[in-house]
C-alpha cells in the first residue's frame, strides 16, 4: 500500500495541523477570556496551511494553562540541530534576505523564494533553497501568494508568522549565521565572558574589537541590525549560564540584548547597542558618547524591570557603540 503524504500546502487535512479561528474562539469562551482573542491571534496565529489560517496548538494551550500569559512557548519544545549545517551552506545573501523578512512591514516588497518540499531531510542539501524550505516546514516562516510549480516546489512570499516567532527570530535563526560564518577563537570567547562578568570594560572593548577584525567577513556591518546579530551570535556561548533574550519589552521600551542568570544570586546584564552611521572625525570621543547614551537610555527606560521582578538584584548595563569595526563600551549599574 502506497503512503500518501499531505503537506501544509495541501488543502486536504489542512485544518488538522493546528487550531482554526473558530476553535480558538471556542476555547477562549470556555475559559471566560473572549477579550483575549486578538492577543492570541497576534502571538500564535499566522500559519497558512492549505489556504487556511492556523494557530499553533501547543502555544495556545500553554497560553491558557499559564493564566493567559502571552510569551514564546513553542520555541523551547525542540532543538533544530540541522540549522547550523543548513546555514553554513546558505551563504551571506540568505542572511540579508532573512533580515528583510524579519523587518518586513506593509508596503514593503516581500521576499519571494522557490521552496522544495522534497527536502525533508536536511542532509539532502546545503543551499539557500534548502534553508528556506526547512524554516517554512518547521514553522519559523509562513507563506502567502503561493504558486504551485509542480514536483513539490512552490513559489511563495515569505513572512515571520507571529509575535511568538518574531520574539526569538534573532537568537534562534539569525545568530546561526555568526556562528557558522565566523571561526571564533575559544580564547577570545573566554575573555569575552570574563570581561562581561568582571565588569572590565577595557578588556570587553578590546576583545570585541579583535573579534570584529578576525571574524567579520561576509557579515555586512552597514546593515542596521548587523551589530545586534553579531553580538547575539557571540553570546550563544553563554547559554549554559544565562537565558539570552533579544528585543523584548521591559520597563518603558525594548532592550537590545538581555543576559538573565539562571541562578538568581548571580549578576544579570542588559546590553544596549548604538551604531554610528557616518565616519566620525573624532572616532574615540564619538563612540564613547554614543555608548554613554545607550546606558542612559537603558536606565531611563528601566529596561532591567523584568529581571528585577524575577528576583535578579544585581544588574549591570553595558552601552556598546559601533562604527564598522571600531567599538566603544561603557558600563553602569541599573
Secondary structure elements and their pairing?
Layout lengths: L20 H10 L6 H8 L2 E3 L2 E3 L2 H9 L17 H8 L1 H11 L8 E6 L11 H10 L4 E7 L4 E7 L3 H19 L4 H13 L2 H15 L10 H10 L6 E5 L2 E2 L2 E2 L2 E5 L6 E8 L7 H18 L4 H5 L5 E9 L2 E8 L1
Parallel strand pairs: 10-11
Antiparallel strand pairs: 1-2, 3-5, 4-5, 6-9, 7-8, 9-10, 11-12
Name some characteristics of this structure.
alpha+beta; 334 residues; globular; 3 domains; 12 strands; 41% helix
Q: Care to describe what's here?
A:
With 334 residues, the protein is of the alpha+beta class. The protein has three domains: 14-76, no CATH class; 90-163, no CATH class; 182-333, no CATH class. 41% of the residues lie in helices and 19% in strands. The protein has helices spanning 21-30, 37-44, 57-65, 83-90, 92-102, 128-137, 163-181, 186-198, 201-215, 226-235, 283-300, 305-309; strands at residues 47-49, 52-54, 111-116, 142-148, 153-159, 242-246, 249-250, 253-254, 257-261, 268-275, 315-323, 326-333. It has a five-stranded mixed sheet with strand order 6-9-10-11-12. The protein has a three-stranded antiparallel sheet with strand order 3-5-4, covered by helices on one side. Helix 4 (83-90) packs antiparallel against helix 6, helix 7 crosses helix 10 and helix 8 runs antiparallel to helix 9. The mean pLDDT is 82.
